[in-house]
Amino acid sequence: MNSVKILIIDDEQVMCEGCRLALSEGGYSVVDFRMNGRAGLEAIREGEYELILLDMKLPDLDGMEILRTLRKEKRGVYVIVMTGYSTVKNAVEAMKSGAVDYIAKPFSDDELVLAVERAMEKKRLVEENLFLRRELVDRFGFSNIVGETPKILSIFDQIGKVAPTDSTVLIYGDSGTGKELFARAIHVHSERAARQFVAVDCSTLSPGLLESELFGHVKGAFTGAIQNKAGIFEVAHDGTLFLDDVANLNMEIQGKLLRVLEVHEYKPVGVSHFKKTNARIIAATNKDLKAMVDEGSFREDLFYRLNVFPLFLPPLRERKKDIPKLAYHFLRHFSRKTGKKIDGFSHDALEILVNHEWPGNVRQLKNVIERLVIMADRVILDSADRVILDSLDLLEPPQMKLFLKGDSIPETLEDLKAVKKQLLEEHYGQIEKAFLIKALKACNGNITHAAQRVGMQRPNFSALMKKRHLPTKTTKAETE
User: Fold this and answer.
1) Residue 474 has what pLDDT?
2) By three-state DSSP, how is residue 310 classified?
3) CB atoms within 10 A of CB 218
4) Is the domain of 349 the same as that of 306?
5) First vs last C-alpha separation in the chain
6) Structural domain count, the chain
7) What is the percent of the chain where pLDDT is above 70?
8) Which one, of 66, 44, 45, lies nearest residue 55 by Cα?
């Protein structure tokens, strides 16, 4: 027996019994029936029914009135309308008022069972859709984006306003700031959440392949096109298309993308006619598109089409207060993934993470935490642990790039002094910090031994550590 709870509201007992018998033979169980409208409406309000078989002509209450009441009070209840006065007008009115189906009396047992099956299948699909949408929100909603700094909260507010619209969004952000994650958050908070979200990296394919990937092609359009292929714009129809690294598009594809944005149509490779698309565009870049427009490497008209609603993602160095939350978020994630029990970071270890500049942004932090979890053999990650010191090799890239060229060359003595100070701070400071870390690693975090190793007094070594934001807390090894 199907466990669907069905209620029949009809003023003819013969009809009620006939429906009960037909549904019973079809594998369903009618749990109740009522002979008038008011009693039926009261039963619906007090009980938990999934399907109502409702007669439109009742002695005390019009069936249409019951439908309108249910639409306000019990939106999850599915109603199949039954009537002996079958007209197209009545059917349309009933469906507009919330009925899921409409059958005319007299009907056969098979017609009734088929109508119930259709209603239950629609209910299943709707519930499955809602479940998948909740999963999407849980995975890509705001709760999955870790951050409480004013800049991040402002982005949440902007997404909340632009997501329900169909406006084009352009996301600016350095590499590793999570542009795709924010694009997905826009998608799952939009009316298109139940449709496809398709992401394309515009920097990974050659222009010829990218055109075919975006717009599709027909068999024989070029060498290797052995069959028709639907383009991403077709796949993303009614959904969201995320174009990452949009600055890498060549001028020809920029022109074709402009047409899609203007008139919502495109031409597959090898086809003479245009096809329509209703995909919403979210683009992303880590470059200054306006500067590229001025240089002539990006179309000005496309820039203004994409830049309808710009979002600026801050680099991690501008949201340092979020680093502890992000670090613990990734720690929990990779602890579950590896099956390890790691409770957290010591204060000094966390201080090292917070004080780093993170040129690779959130992606780099995530990778470092993953390595720490893999290497860790303690429940607390401490700055004196070899695993923390080893991880700093990932934090400090050895390359130092000269930046003095063109207009950057100083013109006055004041400018020269400023550049010298900057070079000392940015480059010599990095070498000095690497020097300290290397000494500490060689001595397993023992500051006294590290100072002796490099020929310095411990107070001077500690002062240099403090200057370079390295924790100077006495380690357990030293006290022993």
Assistant:
1) 52
2) strand
3) 14
4) no
5) 73
6) 3
7) 87
8) 66
Query: Containing domain of residue 217, as a range?
Result: 141-314
Would you say 206 and 187 are in contact if contact means Cβ atoms under 8 Å apart?
Answer: no
pLDDT by residue (tens digit) across 225-261? 778 888 899 999 999 999 999 999 999 999 999 999 9
Q: Is 299 in the same domain as 351?
A: no
Dihedral, CA of residue 125, residue 127, residue 133 and residue 138, to nearest 10: -150
User: Global pTM?
Assistant: 0.60
Tell me, yes or no, whether 279 and 325 share the same domain.
no
Token pair of 165, please?
């619209």
List the structure tokens of 410.
């100083």
Backbone angles phi, psi at 172, to 5 degrees: -100, 140
Dihedral class, residue 27 (left if φ above 0, else alpha if ψ from -120 to 50, else beta): left
Angle between helices 323-338 and 361-375 (to 10 degrees): 40
- Looking at the fold, whether 302 and 329 belong to one and the same domain comes out as no
Q: Are residues 299 and 341 in the same domain?
A: no
Ramachandran angles phi, psi of 199, nearest 5°: -110, 135
Give the tokens for residue 344.
């957290």
Cα(28)–Cα(4) distance, rounded to whole angstroms?
Answer: 7
Residue 300: which residues within 8 A CB-CB, separation 6 or more?
A: 293
pLDDT of res. 176: 93
Would you give the distance in Å from CA 4 to the centre of its chain? 35
